[in-house]
Amino acid sequence: MLLVADVGGTKTRIALFDRKKPLNCIDEKSYSSKAFKALSDIIEDFLTHQSKKISGACFGIAGPVKKNRVQATNLPWVVDAKDLSKKLKLSNVYLINDLEANAWGIQSLTEKDFFLLNAGEHHPGNAALISAGTGLGEAGLYWDGKRLLPFACEGGHTDFGPRNDLEVELLLYLQKKYGHVSYERVISGPGIQELYEFLVNTGKEKRQFDIDLVEDPPLYISDMGSKEKDPACKKALHWFISLYGSEVGNAALKFLALGGVYIGGGIAPKILDVIKKNKLEGFPSFLKSFKEKGRMVDILESIPVKVVLEDRTALLGCTEYALMKESK
Questions:
Q1: What is the mean pLDDT of the chain?
Q2: pLDDT at 51
Q3: Which fold is adopted by the domain 2-96?
Q4: Domain residues of the chain, as ranges?
Q5: For the structural domain made of 155-308, what CATH number should be given?
Q6: What pTM was estimated for this model as a whole?
Q7: 84 contacts: CB under 8 Å, gap ≥ 6
C-alpha cells in the first residue's frame, strides 16, 4: 500500500492506494487541518484504523518544499520527511507541493473528469494548473516532446496587478491591512471575503448580514451571490470570478501553456454555473478576463481551458509521483 495525503489549509485528505492498481483507493478519510497540531497526528489517527502494510508514502502540501521539508503556507506546521520516515518506519517518504501533486494527478484523469470552458486548439506543449481554495496555488507542466512533467511554483504569491481604478482602490485598501498584496489575497476563499468587505466598508454596497455570525463567511458569500439573494455578495462573487479569469490568463502566458490550462481547487466546481456566464454584473466574464491580454489575445483564444471536477486528483498525483520515484 501507498499512504498519500492532500494537505490544505482547511482540510487534509488522507488515503491508501494499492500500488499494483494505482487508481484503486482502498480507504480514505478527511480531517479538519486546523484541529490538529501536526500532520503526523492526522497520520497516526488514520493508521490506528488500518491493518494493511504500508511500503511508501507521499504527501502533497500547500507550501514551498525545500530538501523534503516544508513550512505550510496557511497552517502553523513544519513537515519534515526525515521525521515522518522515522515515525512511519519507511525509507521512502516524499513531500511535494500540493499543486504539483494535482498536476501529476491530472494525467490520470479522463475527459469526463473535466468541464471544458474554452475549446481552443489541440496543440502539444506546456500546460498550467491554477487552483483557488484556502489559498491560490499554481503549477507548470513542461512538455519534453513526449510527455508532461509537472513542477511546482509559488505564482499565487506574486504581486496583485489591478486592471482598473476600482482595483487600484482595492490594492491601496489591502496594502493598509497587509503591506504586500498578492493574488492570493483576492483569489481564494478568504479573498472572496476581502472583496465583499471592501465593497461594504467603502460604501459601494450595503451590508445586509452580520458577517461575525456566519460560520463560514466565504462559503456564505459565494452561496448568497450565486443565488443572487444579496447584491453585495453577488457583486463580490462576480468580481472574484473576473479576477480569477484574469490570473488564469496570466498563468497561461507565464507558462506559455499551449497544451492547456487546468483550473483545480475546491471553489471552481461549486460556482461553475456563474463562471460559465458570458456576462457578470459590472465586470468582464471569466473567459473575457482570461483572453484580454492586449496583443496576446489570439494566443489565449487558442488555449484549451478546463475545470477539474475530480476531487481526488491530488491523491492520485501523490500515488503517481511515489511510483515514478521508486521506478528510478
A1: 95
A2: 82
A3: Nucleotidyltransferase; domain 5 (3.30.420)
A4: 2-96, 155-308
A5: 3.40.367.20
A6: 0.94
A7: 39, 40, 43, 57, 59, 90, 93
